[in-house]
Amino acid sequence: MSEPKEKPKLKNRTIDEMFKKIRESESPESQNETPKVSNQIPESDENEETVVMDESQTDLGEAVTATSDLTPSTCSSSSDFTLSLISKYEPPYPDIAKLSDIDDLIKQKLLSTKWNDSHLFKFPSRVFGQKQRKLQSSWLQNHPWMRYSVSTDALYCAYCVLFSSKDSKEKSFSKTPVSDWKNLPLIVKRHESSTQHQGCVVSSSEYLRIMENKSFSIASMISTSYKTNVATNRHVLEKIIEVILLCGRQNIPLRGHVEERSNFMAILHEKAKTDNILSDHLAFSAASRAKYTSPDIQNELVELCGTEVLNQVIGACKSASCFAVIADECTDKATKEQMSLCLRFLDVEKNNTVIIREEFVGFRHAESVKGAAISDLIVRFLADLELDINKIRAQCYDGAANMAGKYSGVQARILQLNPEANYVHCKAHALNLALIHSSKDVCVRNMMSTVQEIAFSFDYSAKRLLAFSEELSDNQNVKEQLDRRTKLRTLCETRWSSRADSLFTFLNAFPVVVSSLDALKDDRDDKAAQYVNAILKFDFMIALVVAEHLLSATVALTNYLQKTDINLLDAVQEARIVVQRLDNERTDPNVWTALFEKAVKVGEEFEIPPSTPRRAGRQMHRQNHPINDPSEYWRVSLYLVFLDHLVTEITSRVIKNEGRFSAEYLIPSKLQALTDQTTNSIFETFHVDLGDRQAFNDEVARWKIRWDMVDGQRPQKLLETLNATNKDLYPNIYSILTVLLTMPVSSASSERSFSAMRRIKSYLRATMGDERLSNLSILHIHRARSVNITDIIDKFSVKKNRRFNFV
User: Fold this and answer.
1) What's the rounded Cα separation, in Å, for the pair 145 and 2?
2) CA-CA distance, 510 to 508, in Å (whole number)?
3) What is the number of helices (H) and of strands (E) in the chain?
4) Residue 220 burial by Cβ neighbours in a 10 Å radius (0-12, 13-18, 19+)
5) Are 807 and 798 in contact (CB under 8 A)?
6) Torsion over CA of 567, 568, 574 and 578, rounded to 10 degrees?
C-alpha cells in the first residue's frame, strides 16, 4: 500500500520542478522585471483551457479542462502564464465525441482550429497484438481533417461529422470513430479517396468562406468548387453538342461499327487537341466516370437539338393567321413507309416585310398508306405540334387516289374536319402528268423507250461507258454542245425535268452514240447492233427532234413550280404563257421548217434520207395520212398531234381555275376589272375570314379610291400587293390576300425532304429509328438555323437525374 502513495508525491515533485522558474519569477526581486519567457512560448488560440491537477492523476494528458480567454502574449501575471502553458497539454478544440447541439461558432471553431507542434498532448497507448501503440501527433498535423477525442481515444473527421448526409454509406471517422492505430494508414487512405469525404471537404471550405465573409454573399451558398465543376461539365457538354450539330447539319453519320472509331468520337478527339478541359474529360475511363458520349446520350441530344429547331418553325407558324399543310409519303431504305409533313405560312420579317415560307417539320412512320390512316396521322402530327387544325386554309398533295380521292382520300377527310382547307393538286405533279400523257403517241413513245434503253445500257456498263467516253473525247464539237455532260441521261418519271434533259443530251451526242455503238458492235456486242438499227431511221430522228423541242419549252415552268416563294396566281400565269407560246408555234410555219431541216441534217450525216412509213389500207396503231411529202406528213402526223395533246393536258391539269382565284382582281393593276358581282363572289368565298358584308363592300370601295389616287406604278403581284396593304385600314383585304398567298403551289418541299431522307438513311444506316431519322432530317434540312446550346444544356440537365451537375 506504500507504493501507490509514493507515485503521487513523485508526480507532484515533477510538477514542482517544472514550475521552478515560475516560482522564482514571483519573488520580490523579479517583480519589476519583464518575463522573458513569455516571448518564447508560441501564441495560443483564444478560449484556451486550463488543467486542474488531482492527486489521482498519473499523466498530464489526463487533465480536466476549463475555458479561459487568456493568451501567452497578453499575460499580466505569472498565474495567467501558467494557465496558458498548461493548455498546451490538451487538444486545441472541443471534444467532438461529447458535442450534441453544435451552433455556428462551435462548428467554425472545430473546423478552423488545427493541430500544430505547440500542442504537447501525450496520447495514451494501448496494446495491439504484442506491441503497445498510440496515436502520433504527426497524423493530426498532416491530416487537417482529423479531430482527436480524449473521451473515446479515437479519431473523427470533422468535415464528415458536420456535413455528411444521414444516409451515407461511409461511416468511418463520422458515425464510427477510428482507434485502430495499427491499420490507421490504410483506413485513412480509403477515407480520403471516398466521394463523400471529398464532397464534405468542399462543403466545409465553402462554409468557412461564408462565415468569414469571403464569399460573394450568404444568399449564394453555391461553392466556388461547385461552380467550377458545373462550368467544366457545361463546357464539355457544349463541345459534345457542337459535334452533334456539325454531324447533323452536314449529314455525317455519328456512329460506327466500333463506337470509339465513329465519326462522332473522331471529331470529338480532334477538338480535344486544342481543348484541355475536353481532353481531360475524355481521358477518364468509362468505368470511373460518365463521358456522355454513349448512343443513348447522342439520341437525347439529337432530339433536343431537333426540337429546338422545330420550335422555331412552329413558333413562326403559330404567329401566322393561317397555314397550309403539304404531305407526301415515300419508302425508306428499311422498306418502311415514311410520311413527310411541311407547313406553308406567311412570316413577317424585322422590316415588316411579309415573306412566304414552306418549312419541313418532320417524318412520321405510316403503318398504312390508306387515306384514313394518312389523314389520322396528319391530324395527330398537328396535335403534337400544338397547331389548330381550324387554321388550315389549304392542303396540297399529289394526285394519288389515297391522297386526292374525292370521298375517302386524305383531302376529303381533312375537309370534313375543316371545310376551309381547300385541296390543291400539286402543280408540279400535274405538269409531269401532262408530259407523260402527251408523250403516249406511238412514234414518241417508241423513240423515248429506245433512248431510255440505250442510256441505261451506257450508264450501267463500264465497258460501254468507256467506249462512249473515248468517242466523246475525240469529238470536240459534240463535247462543247453537251456543256460538260460526260454521259447520257436516263429518263425518270419522278424527275420532272429529266425527259427534256435526256432528249437534249441524246440529240446533241447522237454522232458519238452511233460511233460508240459501232465500236461495240465490232467487239461482238449483240445489243449494240440492235440499238444502231433502231436509231438510224428517219422516224426516230424526227421524233427525237420534235419531242426535244416541245418538252424543252416546259423546262422553265417545271423548275418554277418547284419554288417555295411563288403563289398559285403566278404559277397559273406562267403556265398560260407556255400554252400561248405553243399555240403561236403551231401557226408559225418557220418553226416546223427549222425542226424538219434539223432532223434532215442529222440523217444526212449517216446517209438517212427523209421518208414516210408505208401506208396500209386499214391502219390501227399509227398515223396513216395519204400524204407523200415527208415534211408535211410528219408535221400533220407527229408535230401537230404532239403539240395539241401537250397544250390540252397543260390546260386541263395545270391551268385549273380555283374558286379563290377571283381575289386576283383585288390586285391594284387589275382593279378596273373588279365588278360588284366579282366583289360578292369574293365575299362568299372568303366569308369565314371576313367580317360584315357591308363593311367589306365599303373597304373595297376605299381600296379602289386609294389606288385611283396613285399616279405611279401600281403593284402587279400578289405578294407585292400584300406588302403595300395597311392591315389596320384594310383588314378584310389583308386577310383575303393572306389566304391566297398561303395556298401551296406544289408538294416539292416534301419531295425534297425525301431526297434528304435517302441521304441520311442510306443502306449503311438502315437500322436508324424513326425519331432519330426525323430529328436528324430537321437538323440537316434546317442547317442554316442557329441553336441556343445553353438552352439545350439546361433542358438536358432537367430531363432526368444526371451523374454530372449542369446547373
Assistant:
1) 46
2) 6
3) 35, 11
4) exposed
5) yes
6) 150
Q: Please enumerate, as own/partner, the contacts of 28-33 that have beta carbons within 8 Å and a separation of 24 or more.
A: none
The pLDDT value recorded for residue 615 is: 62
> String of b and e for 401-435 (b: at least 16 CB within 10 Å)?
ebbbbeeebbbbbbbeebebbbbbbbbbbbbbbbb
Which uninterrupted H or E stretch holds 381? helix 371-384
Sheet holding 392-397, edge to edge: 354-365, 337-348, 323-331, 392-397, 422-425
Using CB atoms within 10 A of its CB, is residue 291 exposed (0-12), middle (13-18) or buried (19+)?
middle
Q: Which of 267-271, 280-284, 352-356, 720-724 has the lowest mean pLDDT?
A: 280-284
Find the distance separating the first CA and the last CA of the chain, reported in whole Å.
73
Distances (CA, A) of 705 to 534, 668, 680: 67, 10, 18
Give the DSSP H/E element, type plus range, for residue 327: strand 323-331
The residue behind cell 440529240 is 507
> What is the rounded distance in angstroms from the CA atom of residue 569 to the CA atom of residue 735?
16
What is the value of pTM for the model shown? 0.71
Q: What is the pLDDT of residues 111-135, one digit of tens each?
A: 888 887 767 788 888 888 778 888 8
User: What 8-state DSSP symbol labels residue 655?
Assistant: S
What does R_g of the chain's alpha carbons equal in angstroms? 46
pLDDT score recorded for residue 696: 94
Q: Determine the average pLDDT of the residues in 20-42.
A: 40
Which residue has better confidence, 730 or 173? Answer: 730
Segment 611-628 shows an average pLDDT of 64
- Dihedral sign (CA 286, 292, 297, 298): negative
d(CA 764, CA 572): 43
CA distances from 23 to 8, 43, 78, 499 (A): 21, 22, 9, 122
Grid cell digits, residue 165: 448526409
Of the candidates 717, 411, 459, 769, which has an alpha carbon nearest to the alpha carbon of residue 566? 717
**Domain limits of the chain?**
2-89, 97-211, 253-423+755-807, 432-653, 662-742
Confidence at residue 21, expressed as pLDDT on a 0 to 100 scale: 43
- The Cα-based distances of 757 to 64, 117, 367, 689 in angstroms read 83, 74, 18, 37
Sort strands 337-348 and 354-365 into parallel, antiparallel or unpaired: antiparallel
Q: Is 183 exposed, middle or buried (0-12, 13-18, 19+ CB in 10 A)?
A: exposed
DSSP 557-625: HHHHTT-SS--HHHHHHHHHHHHHHHHHHHT-HHHHHHHHHHHHHHHHTTT-----PPP-SS-SSS---
Task: Answer yes or no: are the C-beta atoms of 340 and 363 closer than 8 Å.
Answer: yes
Could you give the CA distance from residue 651 to residue 31 in angstroms, rounded to a whole number?
128
- Alpha carbons within 13 angstroms on the beta-carbon side of residue 805 total 10
Mean pLDDT of 540-562: 95
Distant-in-sequence, close-in-space partners of 1: CB < 8 Å, separation ≥ 6: none
Residue at grid coordinates 425527259: 499
For residues 489-519, b (16+ Cβ closer than 10 Å) or e, as one string? bbbeeeebbbbbbbbbbbbbbbbbbbbbbeb
Closest CA to 741 of 358, 313, 359: 358
DSSP state of 638: I
CB-CB contact of 94 with 106 (8 Å): yes
CB 21 within 8 A of CB 68: no
DSSP, res 670:
G
Among residues 749, 742, 687, which one has the least CA distance to residue 719?
A: 742
CA 165 to centroid of chain Cα atoms: 40
Cell numbers linked to 235: 463546357
For 446-487, write each residue's pLDDT tens digit.
Answer: 999 999 999 999 988 899 999 999 999 988 888 888 888 888
Crossing angle between the packed helical segments 224-249 and 263-272, to the nearest 10 degrees: 130
